[in-house]
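Recap from last week: sequence in, structure out.
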Amino acid sequence: MMLGEGSLEYSFIEDDIRKLHENDRKLMMLVITFAVIAVVISCMGLFGLSLFDIHLRYREIGLRKINGAKVVDIFSLIMKKYFYTLAVAFVAGSALAYISIENYMESYAHRVSLTVWMFLVSGILVSVIVFITLYWQTNKAARINPAEVIKSE
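Predicted structure tokens:
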């Protein structure tokens, strides 16, 4: 072959890098999809559990309202149980996530440092999701007519 014969093959470095990370991008989308499905299923489970728990406590809520409890008192009584459980789960989950991420990132030369605010933001986000999931049932229970509850039981 003489100089100047043949065809020139070229590619952009961005395209080469994109091809290298295509499998990672697909895996990321798969993980995000399953994470969203897990959050939806856990919200449905939390809603069902709260529906069952609050329904069992209607008589207690009615008696508390007869004795002068306000809507805010009933609301805090019901939500307190779930947020204590959430706090314990947050501490255990954050510790487990920190250890898992550190072990996973151990083999990489360049790593992202884990900071507390990452875990706090996720905890606040989960707290908001829990609050939104429980708000409707708790609000309904806090506004029940105590006379109807006591009469029906």
